[in-house]
Fold:
Amino acid sequence: MWLLRLDAAGAQQDGADLGCGAKAESLRGLLAAGLPVPPGFVVTHAAFRAAVGEAALRVDVDALGQALEQLASVIEAAELPAELEELVTRQAAELAGAAGSGGLLAVRSSISLEDRAAGAAAGVFSSKVAVTPSEVWPAIRAVWASVCTPLAAAYAQQRARSVSQGQASAAAPLQVAVIVQRYAPGQRITVYTRQPGQPSSPLAAAERGAELATVPRSVGEPAADASARPQASEPWATAAVALALRAERALALQATGADVELIEGPDGTLAVVQARPIVNPTFTAKLAPPPIVTAALLADGRCWTADLAHNPDPLSPAQAGLVERVDREGASPYALRLCAGISLRHAARAAGQPGRAERGGRAERGGRARRGGRAQVGAGAAPALRRHRGPRRRRAGAAHVR
Structure:
């Protein structure tokens, strides 16, 4: 099937089997739940395959540069099946001619990598708004061709390496679909039904232009007395969050929360144009290094602090060498060490290891010790050196470092 109406129902209209993409499937679910969604239809993956051919589906995601550019040229110039071209043109004209459309359409991507719990792919693929019926096919081709950009290839490659729900996301082949909807003019409102990174948060966040509002999730809960529901200081935010929470429930996204895009029309009415899971970051605990690595470090009995704020990743060989030299020269008030490539520090130098000032050494202005101390490596050597630098004595251009 080449086209599927967003409001189509029934098992024979299973959009997942037809390759409609998660974005289109979410809109179909919202329409079925009675939410205000602009009407439209989906140009399915089967239509993409019929127009472009199987060759486009066998392109390695590692292909970049000229290979991607050539594929995009093939997509933009592919000869369309006459029946498909006529069908889309007729449906687009009927949609644009409907009352209240203003004669304009929105053409949005619905790629299989988008709007998933494993990743949203926000901004990776193309979408066009305020499109006239005569511009629908160029807009559809632009969405198709957007799967061939270096950004899309890199994103697909990264997702192919990821693991979602215990299965490699690369198991499902890339599917390319396009949504054609009646254009909804107005102000965009974005709602996060839970705070990103806090899936148990009782608060929702709404953004309209430069306006930001935090609203309790309880505004969307049924209440015998509507006046008993909590209200945000901005009425627009209360209405937007209440509608977004309806979308969250319709798509069963209560566990993660929903990222919902609304359009507030000139008359204040709201329409849902997108709803997807909030992609909450995952954190992996860092394992402590084995005793064989830390044994020499702990032999002197001091407690060492990892400088993860400045250097969370292992240092390069050049950076590691600089840390060792700064410590050897006594250019830092801290004692510095390396453990598994991570920079560590201790507030006091070991006995018998005097700093430069204790040795009576002077650093010429711009000399090696001063340059080493200013390098942003490990242990915060530069800020510490600046804090402990005493008054400058301008004798023969020299400066004491205390």
Summary: Confidence is low (pLDDT under 50) at residues 163-171, 355-402. Residues 82-97 form the longest helix (16 residues).
